[in-house]
Structures are given as C-alpha cells and as structure tokens.
Design brief:
- The chain has helices spanning about 15-45, 50-55, 60-70, 80-95.
- It is mostly helical.
- It has one domain (about 20-95).
- Helix 1 (about 15-45) runs antiparallel to helix 4 (about 80-95) and helix 3 crosses helix 4 (about 80-95).
- The mean pLDDT is about 75.
Length: about 100
C-alpha cells in the first residue's frame, strides 16, 4: 500500500537526445493544432464573407485559399470586415509557411 504523496515512478529525463526529441514533438503538435484552428477559422469566416470573396476562395484548396485571402485589401463599405479577413489570412499564412521557404 502506498502512502499519499509518495511517488514511485521515475520521471522522464529532459536532457539528451530523447529529451530534445520530446521537446520537438511537443512543439510540432502545438504548431499543427494552431495551424488547423487558424485554417478552420478562416473557412468559418469565409462562410459569411461577401459573395465575391466567398465564391472564389471557399472552394479552393487550403493553400490557394490562404494565399488568396492574404492578398485581400479593404474596400468600400466592407472595409472593416475585409481587414478582419486579411488579419486571419496573415495568421494562416504564417502557420502554413507560405512565403517562408518552408
């Protein structure tokens, strides 16, 4: 029977190659999750975007959609909405790695 507060497990080592690989996997997992969330957010925003923007981008592949949204500029009465779409596209672009040579 174990006493409360007595740990018997040996903690994983954080030094060496195994610790470094564990850190890389944790960072990658977080990056993939953030990228997925950003792309999903962009798709959700496009559902309510102006028709011209929605028709061209929602049906495109993810990379083409992100590239297209990254070039959106504010226009007319929808200037605030276009700025929001543009900001989201910039975040997606950074996460997808477009233009970074990745």
């Amino acid at each position: 029977m174990l006493s409360v507060g007595t740990a018997t497990a040996i903690p994983k080592q954080h030094a060496g190659a195994a610790g470094a690989m564990r850190a890389v996997f944790v960072a990658r997992r977080g990056t993939v999750k953030a990228k997925t969330q950003a792309v999903n957010q962009l798709a959700a925003l496009l559902v309510s975007a102006p028709r011209e923007m929605r028709d061209r981008r929602l049906k495109a592949k993810t990379t083409a959609c992100v590239e297209g949204c990254a070039h959106v500029r504010p226009f007319g009465q929808n200037a605030d909405a276009a700025s929001a779409y543009e900001h989201t596209a910039v975040v997606c672009e950074a996460l997808v790695g477009i233009g970074s040579g990745a």
